[in-house]
Amino acid sequence: MMKPLITNTFIINNKHLSSVLSPSTDIVDYNYDIDGVHKLNLLQILRPDIYFGKNLSDKKFFEHSKKYYQNLIDKKIISKKNKNFNLYKIHSENHSQVGLVTLLDINDYQNNNIKPHEKILVSKGKERAAQLKKVRYQICPIYLFFDDKKLKLDFHKETKGNPMIYFKSGNYSHSIFQSKTNYMDKINFNELFIADGHHRVEGFSQLNKTETKTLFLAVIFPKSQCNNLTYNRSVKFPNNYKRKNFLNDLNKFFDINVASKPIKNKFQIYFDGQMQNLKLKPQFESLGADCLDFGEFILKRILSIKDETNDERVEFVPPSLGDGYLKNQVDNDINNLSTFMRPVKIDLVMDYAKKGKFMPPKATWFEPKPLDGIFFHHIK
Q1: Residue 18 half-sphere exposure, CB side, CA atoms within 13 Å?
Q2: Has this prediction a pTM greater than 0.70?
Q3: SS3 category, 278
């Protein structure tokens, strides 16, 4: 049984929120135009090496992160929370989800009470662990969900009135409400599922090898409110594979027909300037999702790419980059084919997690996500 823990953390003051939001560290490097980023931004905690455009020793990395974090406290840009739980509401015209902001024990992940569903990229897991060890502060909450068919919780009822924090980002509004409920006494979670943050959780797990009861910050949403989108792939053929054979090889496993454009309810690939609809032939059993079938029948059986977790020929493309990016990778000979897949059903995600099975990396893209930089947790 997992009890949510009061978040003895810091929370940003509303008027400073737009100043500290940072670009994702996944999309910045030493060539990033830092002049366009506000001086208060959180890269100074997460990646001061990028912020200053140079490599830093572990000691200098940690010292700067710590100094900047303390500066946020001293200037009252962030302040210590009270003893109440908070609720996080993300909403738009067509969507609304409310989750509980809490601390959890990483041992529950190591004991499989908090369940992953996809393989991590080994290099990225090590990178996250190294980052946490150097920084010792968490500002990016892990996105978890629970099965609200089994555990009935209505967080929406506590989101009436004015929020403590309100911020609009893209198509979504993000609101933080103070709860009057002591969820530590009210809830025992039997199991939780990772939606977003597999690499960060693994980073905490590696950090926990030499420490006891490492806590991490999470936002837990009901399953019925979560929205999963497609994480596509763009692939470069192995050097020893003959490109001219691809459609014939593909036809061994799939019925193929040309399409004029991407269609949401179809499994498609883009190859040689054409969109192709794919349907697995009846003699082959589907694994339950397009990304699984793609991995099994195209990557493994046709291209002999056995482990997409560690193969640089497979590029994972988030939905935020759009259809144009996928086509561009092929049209400009950067890669040989791109996928246009349907999202993995969330019940299949749970089934894999419960059975201890793993989907390939980047099988899911849960959107919208909690913003980074609203809550700050000091890792003891």
Answers
A1: 6
A2: yes
A3: strand
